[in-house]
Design a protein that fits this description.
By secondary structure, the protein is of the alpha+beta class. It has a domain of about 210 residues: Periplasmic binding protein-like II (D-Maltodextrin-Binding Protein, domain 2), CATH 3.40.190. Helices cover about 25% and strands about 20% of the residues. It contains 16 helices and 20 strands. Strands 12, 13, 14, 15, 16, 17 and 18 form a seven-stranded mixed β-sheet that branches. Strands 8-9-10-1-11 form a five-stranded mixed β-sheet, covered by helices on one side. A four-stranded antiparallel β-sheet has the order 4-5-7-6, with helices on one face. Helix 12 links the parallel strand 15 and strand 16. InterPro entries: Peptide/Ni-bd, SBP_5, SBP_5_dom. This is ABC transporter substrate-binding protein. It comes from Streptomyces iconiensis. Keywords: Signal.
């Protein structure tokens, strides 16, 4: 999924080491975090600088919103609510199991649990599952997770349930509790794919246009009681949700309240002091300058720290000018001083230099570095030789898209400084954070390059490389292949790896494919980001989740004393 700027995906430091078998360097902050089980009741407050992109799960697909979705929506399967390696496991949610493949993995059957209901009291049926998933084909709505359209067979020209009435994707519903998917080809990990938000069920006939961006229909333990776009969201209990039907969510708080648009420095000050209602708050990762102020025992007890499961990179649009030459793209990979990017993120506590497309937490990752330089500080001589061979020894100009967030501006400036000695003039184009991914995912609005990122939808190689580099998935809206790379050899290698029926073999194949793709240099890997979060003194059950891009797992967090206000 696209990485966000508010709630990064994260691991506790010890967990990251256990999963990746690598060292992330010294960290001044321990994994830490509040212990204990939450009580029942009270309201958890969330402080954030950035609003959610979309409340509609067919549209949102960034790191800031997917964790939120698990409070409001349910899917056939979902990630286990647990820290560490246990959290990488996909478990049943609305379904009784993680799916039963047949026909060599081209057909998958799921049986729904008895009892789950929407917030209007209506039982969730197989027809609702089919309808909710069908919305992914709508050209205006289906701009989020691509897995439904990529995997499930559908009639040619199908445009979703509102525009293509009388036809549908190949999803059978032989009875109210059975859902049968017919896929375009074998897919070994389809039981994990259906955990994506785009597989959320909805009552038939609902949700046209922007309806769910204003007022969602909940299937999870909470429903939206109030929403002011860009300002606040209030969740209250969905009275028709039953813990007896849900093995993942504990739903201990009575509700959640988000406040958006806050200055990051203000958030840090509030979380350091954690007074008044902020004792019941969780918040964005703190700013680099704040880390040195975490000194006393009480504040450290409220600290969560860890390596994110994402890669931040500079995408290179292979259809734009000089970037169409692979020698130029390779030159950029050699030229970038990645240590300066680490510094832009706040130093070693906040980031490690990235050497490959996949982050350390992906199963099967090889971690090869085709453009290694001394200390990851760049090699201008190698870059100059490549530019000379491409006939652009005097440099050229490019436009770099980036988000409004301070660390993204600093990253763009560091890239400017890395490329300036080569005569490459970088014009930085700042885009509002809330709309950034929607803009750069529209090829007509793309520029030459972008500072962006990607987080795994689950801890498997198939969630990283195909969405970003399969040329057959390039679309006019919701496009994730920002490089617009359409290489028949890479497409075929993706097909071969995807067709493997053993998930471990598949991950190994994608690990090898990482280096093959980097020979085409469609991106410049920049950093593997880390995050440090502070929580209020009354917060209990908080931990960093190894896969969910929300960082602190919302479905398990709550208040130690639900009646405490200060």
């Amino acid at each position: 999924m696209r990485s966000g700027s508010g709630w990064p995906a994260g691991l506790a430091v010890a967990t990251a080491l256990a999963l990746a078998g690598c060292s992330t360097g010294p960290a001044p902050i321990s994994a830490g975090g509040p212990a204990g089980e939450p009580g029942k009741g009270g309201t958890v407050r969330v402080l954030s600088s950035t609003a959610f992109s979309h409340l509609d799960p067919a549209q949102g697909f960034d790191a800031g919103v997917n964790n939120f979705y698990r409070l409001v929506y349910r899917t056939l399967t979902t990630q286990r609510a647990a820290p560490g390696k246990a959290g990488t496991e996909v478990v049943p949610d609305l379904a009784t199991d993680t799916g039963r493949p047949s026909d060599g993995g081209r057909t998958w059957t799921f049986t729904l649990r008895k009892g789950p209901r929407f917030q209007n009291g209506k039982a969730i049926t197989s027809a609702d599952v089919k309808f909710g998933i069908s919305r992914a084909w709508d050209p205006e709505i289906g701009i989020g997770s691509p897995y439904a359209k990529q995997l499930i067979a559908a009639p040619k020209g199908y445009r979703g349930p509102y525009r293509s009435k009388g036809s549908s994707p190949r999803i059978d519903t032989p009875d109210s509790r059975t859902v049968v998917f017919h896929l375009k080809q074998s897919y070994a990990d389809f039981g994990s794919a259906v955990a994506q938000p785009v597989f959320t069920p909805f009552p038939r006939g609902t949700g046209a246009r922007s309806e769910f961006d204003k007022q969602p229909i909940a299937s999870g333990p909470y429903q939206v009681a109030a929403y002011e776009a860009g300002a606040r969201i209030k969740l209250v209990r969905n009275k028709f949700w039953s813990e007896a039907t849900d093995e993942v969510r504990t739903a201990r708080p009575d509700g959640f309240e988000w406040t958006f648009g806050l200055d990051p420095a203000t958030i840090d000050e509030r979380m350091l002091s954690a007074r008044g209602e902020d004792v019941n708050a969780i918040a964005d990762a703190i700013q680099p300058a704040t880390i040195s102020r975490i000194q006393d025992k009480e504040t450290r007890r409220r600290t969560l720290s860890g390596l994110m499961g994402c890669t931040t990179y500079m995408s290179l649009n292979t259809k734009k000018g000089k970037l169409g030459d692979v020698r130029v793209r390779r030159a950029l990979n050699y030229a970038v001083n990645k240590q300066s990017i680490v510094n832009a993120f706040g130093g070693a506590t906040k980031a490690d230099p990235a050497t490959s497309i996949q982050p350390p937490t992906i199963s099967g990752r090889k971690g090869t570095d085709l453009y290694a330089t001394d200390g990851q500080r760049g090699d201008l001589d190698k870059a100059r030789k490549l530019l000379k061979s491409a006939g652009v020894s005097k440099g050229f100009s490019l436009t770099l898209d980036t988000r409004e967030a301070p660390v993204m501006r600093a990253t763009a400036e560091a890239l400017q400084q890395s490329l300036a000695p080569l005569g490459i003039k970088v014009k930085v184009n700042i885009i509002d954070t809330a709309t950034f991914y929607e803009v750069i995912a529209s090829p007509a609005q793309q520029h030459d390059a972008a500072v962006t990122g990607w987080c795994p939808d689950w801890a498997a190689g198939i969630t990283f490389l195909p969405p970003l580099f399969d040329g057959r998935n390039i679309v006019s809206k919701g496009n994730q292949n920002l490089a617009q790379l359409n290489d028949p050899g890479i497409n075929a290698a993706i097909d071969r790896a995807s067709a493997l029926k053993d998930v471990d073999e598949q991950n190994d194949a994608f690990g090898a494919l990482d280096a093959k793709i980097m020979r085409d240099a469609p991106i410049v890997p920049l950093v593997y980001e880390k995050s440090v979060n502070l929580v209020g003194g009354n917060i209990a059950g908080a931990y960093k989740h190894p896969v969910l891009a929300g960082g602190i797992d919302f479905v398990s967090v709550g208040l130690a004393d639900p009646d405490r206000r200060a």
